[in-house]
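Quick one - first record:
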Amino acid sequence: MAVTKTHKVVDHIVETLYKYGVRHVFGIPGDAINDLMDAIRRHGKVEFIQVRHEETGAFAASAQAKLTGKLAVCVGTAGGGAIHLLNGLYDAKLDHAPVLAITGQLPRSEIGNHSHQEINSTALFSDVAVFNQTLFASDSAPEIIQQACNSALIEKGVAHIALPADVATEQVEANIRCHPVAGTETGNTKPLASTLNNALSLIEQAEKVVVLAGIGAISARQQLLTLLKKCNAPFIRSLKAKVLLPDEHEYSLGGLGLLGTRPSLEAIENCDLLIMLGTDFPYKEYYPKNAKVIQVDKDIRHIGRRCPVDVSIVGEVSEVLDQLVVDLAQKDNDSFLTECRHQKMKWSREQGKKENLQDTPIKPQLLARSVGELANKDAIFLCDTGTVTAWVARHLPVTEQQLFTLSGNLATMAFSMAGAIGAQLKFPERQVIALIGDGGFSMLMQDFITAVNRKLPIKVIIFNNAKFGLIQLEQESSGYPDYKTSLKNPDFAEFARLCGGKGWSVSRPEQLVDALKEAFTSTDACVLDVHVDPDELVMPPKLELSQAVNYSIAKAKEFLNSND
């Protein structure tokens, strides 16, 4: 008679994660997950990455998932450990990244008794997770673990499992198979011939076509170029799709929105047809008022969510464009594209002057441009939230061989350095660069120690303006005086050295290039603390009169307050 082999629930969990391609689990040990920690230790092929704050672990997992599209994992113990994961998990949710969070829970007999560290984890994670279960019975563990992993991959979101301490060590059959999904299956995405004909008809009738593309079009670069050429259409990208086409490309006008370019805004205002490809660009005020719209997206929930759509096509952008461009006739009239290129040249000259200024304090535009020009050809950039986002959006050159990500839809601070830890572990041979403000860095700066201890040669570039610059701008553009945005910072370069890494403090432009080169060639974790001009303003592509008036009122209030 055959004997059924069994092993602990935690061993089954770790082996399942391994089969799904997971090689790193981020978090902090704790009593409620001690059994899971020991299972990871004994497994030996999945590595636990100890961080100094669970939020860092969730950000690191989110970054891995964004950059690869594959499952990433973070853990937290019961109570505070689980709660600390939430900000990073919301970042993953809003940017559609497949992340699994496993949190410790009290033994089943103690749940509901107001026990020490007891929280209702199912309620806590109900909004952030596409799959959210407490593992109450060991015999259901294999199915629930597999469902959680598959749900995160298929729905491109967060899955959560709460693991009671007593269930963790119970036995389950060891020979249960799991069936990982790739997370990329889309089924039959061929649009109806009538829908394609309607799209072709709109394109043929239009005289001023603009293409707005997002991260959903990354795999369709060649088809996109064919579309642009046949339509004589300028190209505008979302910030997350910065690597789709370089901003210097002959068809590219750059980004859209507050952090975008004036040529992009003018092209949108003047077009008669907007073709949206794999983008859910969230700012409704930047969509055209009178143009026809064609939208292509594999997620039907994105169709028509931001603006009225005349032709909607649900499917992978690459597959749809493969069919669309075949029957698309070459447009003869390129006057609109020519005018857009002319406006882009004027804009680029204006921006180029700022990028080359050798003033003291250092201009943030110069810093962003210098980082991009000196970075490796296959570098990975992770951008934080704040004024740094604006400087990076407009002035950091990124090529299609590089990778770029940020906290896009959540736009939370402190993402980029934590994300760089995850990125460097996933891509050990590539240069990983975090671009961050002093406010964002100081939120989770303690985890620079994690990079040092793991011997991860991440490069952290701090745009140090000694304040929450974007918040100050938001206050003043609303007519309020600057209030509580200034920061008194420690010496970040000295902090990096105290942690065991390398650090440079740069305050003059003539020091910048040499310091960047030294950091970029170092094999250590590095912090480059660059003191940039605190008075350099992030200007919208077009300044509205109300914004100028409110800014003037705010400055007058600040002047009066300073004289009180």
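second record:
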Amino acid sequence: MHKKIALGLVVSLCLSFTITNSFRDTIQEKLSNYLDNYPEKVYVQTDKPYYTLGDDVWFSTYLVNGVNHKKSNKSKVVYVELINEKDSIVSKKQFYVFNTNVAGDFKIDKNWKAGNYVLRAYTNYMRNQKADYFFQKQIPIWNVAETDSITHVTPQPNSENLTEVKEIELKEKPEIKFYPEGGYLINGLASKVGIKIKDKLNRDITLNGVIKDSDGNTITSFKSFQYGLGIITLIPNEGQSYHASVMINDVEYTYPLPKALPSGYNLNVVNNGNHLIVKVTTNAATGLKNSYLLAHQRGAMVYEKSETENTNSYLIKLNTNTLSDGVTHFTLFNNEGKPVCERLVYIDNPQDDIAVNLNLSKSAPGVRDHVSLKLGLADKDGNPVTGNLSMSITDVDAIGQSTKSGNIKTYMLLNSDLRGQINNPGYFFEKDGDPKRRYLLDLVMLTHGWRRFTWSEILNTSQETPKFKPEIGLYITGHTTSKRKKSNISASTRLTFMGTFPYQEKKRSDSNGVFKYGPFVFMDTMPTILEARINEFEKEEYKSNRMVDIHLLKNYSPSPKLDRKLSYVSNFDDGAKISNFLKKSKDIFEINETFLEEARLLDEVVITATKKSLEEQRTQELNEKAVYGFPTNRIDMKEYESMENLTFLELVSMVPGVNVANDSISIRGGGTPSLYMNNVPVQIDDVITMTGADIDFIDVLKGVDAVYFPNSGNGVIVIHQREGADFFAKNVKRKPGIIDFTSTGFYTAREFYAPNHIDPFGSTNKQDIRTTLHWEPKISLNTKSISSNISFYTSDIRSNYAIKIEGITDSGIPVFHLETFSVE
């Protein structure tokens, strides 16, 4: 009998050991897959937190690997949208990210309505997760042309001044929430309970109270600190319930604490800065044997422990000098593989500290003065660090800048991983190694419910191909159908980009008629021709070969729905600064209106002395487009503006030696010439409907002048399309088997403009008032250039100016720096 029992125990032990190892392998596999298919993060730095109608939004967009914050090797394409109060996208830009960050801008239309806009940024690959993970930043926009415009947008309520906590007079019952450490209160086990207090205006509240049991006995007292946070330690007893009691205006308000479980687990963590003390306890009958403790940072495992002993508690000391900055997740799984406790801890490793070295050529420049600065990064040992940065210089009196405000460091390391809103997050990073701030940040970890990484999603995620794939360029896709039968058919297709350097490619659509060209990387727009033939392309064609319809697909999917509650809110609660900003913006508006009126008067002056030089410049411009050399004959439509209504055939018939009969062309002494549009071969049917309004110039090449082109024995005619007058976008008669359109490429940001007060031709009598003194969207520090030299000019305003630098190193460490200087 005893032998049977012993054998049963051995089998049970082996089975438990096998289950534990199997579960550990599953966890390792899931984490490995998560790292291989890592999420992406996007952050956008803007030059200012708020704007006015007619203003420019200057920004720099950062795209990184969501786990290690290094350059993403998945997506190269990022979308940035500006969304109004009615949740309509008023402007959308598509960018190609060459190296971590890319410059961008929005022009705020004067006819838009003032309000709280949202700037949103994401990649197509990020759409596989919830839109919660998109970067969303709230941007107020005022209308200074209206006297009551300040009432259109009100400052956001934020935390009180964190350097001096002030009690807010409460007139109604506040909201109090309780967060037991690890997730649950367990009878007989000591547990810390985080407390979060807010009023109905979402303000953080400082408040005193007590905890009582169901018999009315006071167990302990509590007080909330900054951010409305507090903490208590409680050992629940069986048969008792607990509640918080607070007195407001001599009225008692009570709040029930979560009900304690009869048995369970507790996960306690004490953050001492350079090390963590982790204590795991349970009162469950099975104890902690075969439990599994795991710690990870954004999905990258940093610690694991499989408990093999039959114990009810254990203690771990974990040094933090090998961990990266950011949120660390501790999760305890029981012997059935279920997550039963979780605790978030913030790691601040001094090894990750990056110094920003900024040297100005003048400590106190004057108005309209030239200033240069040298910028570099260094690690804790003083070694140079490479990375990508962006920088804004703004008027402090008009633009509120504070080290407590959110920035790329707080977003990457806090807000983006927690997904919730943390007001004044920069407060936690102002003083390195400050125990008070570390303590408060630990309370934030204890009381924050939302997080990016959840085990339920990780463990239940299948390895199916993501619906939304990373984009590395632009594609031109669609399908071909029979013009007669209207069914999908395989056809020969030909794509032609009619740019400065023409490009042509052929491929056959598949059995379902589907074709796909790309990926392409080009900026702005490109005139494009897409052709299809039932058989191959031939010089002399039957009309039946063209009986194909071409159907294009949109370049990207519709934008996801916006959730405003998840918008990242900048701290702009300083009413005095906003009033000053609006005043200066009003002055700028009036100065610009006056300047424009003066410019209209100058437009009436006619200058004729440079006619010869303009003709020479025109000839040079056309010759640069004619990559084949000099033509035999040329028709420049600048000289024939009165003939813009003539067709291409009527125009080319004016050239000596060119004969036109019906819809055919011949050159005297030869046969039918080859036709080219912007140096790309075309057929007569493709250009026959063009008029002089579509054409910039026509070159005719004969004999040796045409040797640049193949098969040029009969001569060559090259049509150059007029810029800005897109022939392919016009409502012309379409020929079967061809469509023409303008392909939209990636947006290229405008260059930030500021007056050059040294150059007498670049300077004017116009008064120079700017709230943004300078904007530098992309500063690259690499091994060849470990520092960057930047120059700018001060304006006419004597004020204090803030230099705000944000960015990320090549090793994935976010960087933020803020300092000021005075213009005297």
